[in-house]
Amino acid sequence: MNFVSTRGNVSEIGFIDTVLMGLADDGGLLIPSKIPQIPQTRLEEMAKLTYQELAYEIFSYYIEGEIPENELKELIHQSYSTFRDPEVTPVRKVKDNMYVLELFHGPTFAFKDIALQFLGNLYSYVSKRQNKIIHILGATSGDTGASAIEGVRGKEGIRICILHPHQKVSKVQELQMTTVHDKNVLNLSVKGTFDDCQRIIKELFADVDFKNKYHLRAINSINFVRILAQTVYYFYAYFQVAKQTGIKSLNFSVPTGNFGDIFAGYLAKRMGLPINKLILATNENNILERFIHDGVYMPGQFHSTYSPSMDIQVASNFERYLYYLLDENPSLVSSLMDQFKSEGKIVVSEELLQKVKDDFAAHGVMGEECLQTISKYYDESNYLLDPHTACGVAAYEKYNESSEVYVTLATAHPAKFNESIERCHIEQVFPEKINQLFNKPQYQEIVDADNNEIVRELERLFSSSH
Ligand SMILES: *Cc1c(COP(=O)(O)O)cnc(C)c1O
After folding, report:
1. pTM of the entire structure?
2. Of 325, 192, 311, whose CA–CA distance to 255 is shortest?
3. Residue 465 pLDDT level (bands cut at 50, 70, 90)
4. How far is the CA of 256 from the centre of ligand 1 (A)?
5. What angle do CA 52, 101, 259 make, to 5 degrees?
6. Pairing label, strands 216-218, 185-191
7. Residue 203: inside a domain, yes or no?
8. d(Cα 231, Cα 249) in Å, to the nearest integer?
9. Is residue 234 domain-resident?
């Protein structure tokens, strides 16, 4: 399988080079040159596979032998052996026509582990195989950072620097990142928002000389592997729910920030999985909800919310979707992205908007509605939702039609966001692994949202002996 850029100015590359390139060298995002199609008959057989077997099969469509079979199987096995549930991503029936897909059984209690455990192991594998240094640079709204650090801490040949917005992540998120004391880990707490952090790393990655000089690698969802690993659980959930209900098509409600997770659902649909609607749930930072309703993609005012991992205005994966919406036309994507840069917005035609609405519905969930949903499901269904999942569930409720079946993605464990749970007057018991964090010392540097200052910190990390 070859990969191309959404902006059309990168020559076709294979899977491993795609992983290493992260952001495409022309500033676009990498995508498969052709989406693999899974025939209906094969889909029926895939229903029997375990999570790991399913991951192997889906990855194989994209990796096509670049990693030998036994080595890929070992990477997958290793990556999901750290999960606390044997099914990796189990589904739970919470309402008659609504299942929750629990994606938080990995080491850092959020769905990011599913892709980042694999990506961490894959970087380690590539580093050994090619004898290459891997320097990871990433931005996080809270969960990616902890998860990426957990995926590579202490690993030889790899150093990692994570930018997070100062005092805009939850306490547990901060502790998960900053209590790690391995020499190959640097946490920068940036005085700004997640959008500042994401803009800075995108600018550093777009400087191709700088990126190559320092062997910079990406762990954000600009990296196609993140998307690929996340398609697996859409298939897995579909098979589990289909077995229980006999349904032929399914709707997914997805708490959304950077459009990565929901784009994985879109890709699964394009591969042949019978997904009806993808419901996009946002919080007050609702640029994507507005786009799906009005066809205007324009950042608004930033809000700090009860669901901080979704506090994002500029969704980096939106460009991948735009590429498919525009019938895979890279010059159109480039001109719209240029327009976005100069005018601060993208507007699509009525005809395209109709196409968007065929695949997506959207609901922006405000703070009170989020908390009420947590309380309601705790009281009525005895199920404690984290605030991100609660946005997904509230969006399901808005579109709920009794003839349909829905899966809401549970993107984090509620213990990560106790600030919001406490507001509902619910007392939760923390998992032991989270309890232990509170007594550990923290390691982080507080810096300005300034590219030069961050480059200086990076150079210090990359030149340190390890
Ligand atoms: C990252 C994150 C999201 C948003 O996922 P995207 O792929 O950025 O859309 C939602 N919920 C939680 C808990 C997250 O950590």
Report:
1. 0.96
2. 311
3. low
4. 6
5. 90
6. unpaired
7. no
8. 16
9. yes
Q: Give the atom of ligand 1 at the shortest distance from the alpha carbon of 142.
A: 15
Atom of ligand 1 nearest to the CA of 261: 7
CA-411 nearest atom, ligand 1:
13
The answer as to whether 415 is a domain residue is yes
Pocket of ligand 1 (CB under 6 A): 110, 112, 143, 221, 255-262, 309-310, 388, 411-412
Find the 259 Cα to ligand 1 centroid distance in Å.
8
Task: Judge whether residue 114 has pLDDT over 60.
Answer: yes
- pLDDT per residue over 253-279, tens digit each? 999 999 999 999 999 999 999 999 999
Paired sense of beta strands 445-448 and 275-282, if any: unpaired
171 DSSP 8-state letter: H
Number of structural domains found in the chain: 1
- Domain residues for the domain of 321 are 91-109+225-423
**Exposed e or buried b per residue across 152-176, where buried means at least 16 C-beta atoms within 10 angstroms of its C-beta:** bbebebbbbbbbbbbebbbebbbbb
CATH number of the domain enclosing 314 = 3.40.50.1100
Mutate to test the pocket of ligand 1, among 113, 254, 411, 413 (most ligand atoms within 8 A of CB): 411
**Residues 162-194 pLDDT 10s:** 999 999 999 999 999 999 999 999 999 999 999
Q: Catalytic annotation on 112?
A: yes
* Ligand 1 centre distance from Cα of residue 258 (Å): 7
Residue 313 Cα, ligand 1 centroid: separation in angstroms? Answer: 13
